[in-house]
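Obj: model holo form, ligand = nicotinamide-adenine-dinucleotide.
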Amino acid sequence: MNAPSTTDNMLGVALVTGSTSGIGAAIARRLSREGYAVVLHSRSSADTGRAMAAELKHAVYVQADLALEADRVHLMHEAMAAWGRLDVLVNNAGISKVIPHADLAAATSAVWHELHEVNVVAPFHLVALAEPALREAAKSGRAGSVVNISSHAGVRPKGASIPYAVSKASLNHLTRLLAVSLGPDIRVNAVAPGLVDTPLTADWKDAQALWRARAPMHRAASPDDIAHAVAMLVASDYLTGEVLLSDGGLNLT
Ligand code: NAD
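Output (holo structure tokens):
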């Protein structure tokens, strides 16, 4: 733990779920550079989390399995214990399953339940747990901010599997519903990435070729591209209920 006793000189405190790898790590580093104290989190990889927390200026790491309700409560409790406030919640942690869309039998109830729990129920529950702190943050002049990391698969009929795409579509709708319910104290937005270069997608050769050939930007996103989109939404004083499609323009072609 590398926690200062106060956040007086900081923009506030940001909790980024799934932040020891991939997109979440880039978001945590970006918000840290912008002046936020950061609560890092992952399901496993505790050593990486602790090393990252030591490296960033003001950061703590908490381990929690977001498929478990008790672990979500533990995460929020530890996040609040670090600095006694929370200004930004980034629901980045998520899971995917690759199943051809035509293979209906492979998309079992167990797959549906697992993806729904981690990709939809957990983000909702974390917002519910964070609500009092985010409303409190608004009293200091800036609305609390939630950013959900969804997917272009939740916007267009695409994606690693139907259960994954539907879970991200649910997360997009959840974003809009919560924006209506929680404003003006709390703004709720989503970033919907297309293909992002992470270890998870390193061997997705067909998708990479598609992006090179058809996306106006001729490449997949980097994790930093997605972190930039998140930082823009966090920096706003006004945007809420937006689902920011970040696919290099592929949807236009
Ligand atoms: P990643 O595997 O590097 O990160 C996923 C993170 O989620 C990990 O830190 C992991 O610990 C966490 N996580 C998963 N299940 C969890 C659980 N039960 N409890 C706690 N934490 C859990 O992958 P990534 O590509 O960086 O994905 C980050 C987000 O971006 C996900 O929501 C993913 O759906 C979304 N996304 C990724 C891409 C892409 O191309 N990589 C595209 C669109 C959307």
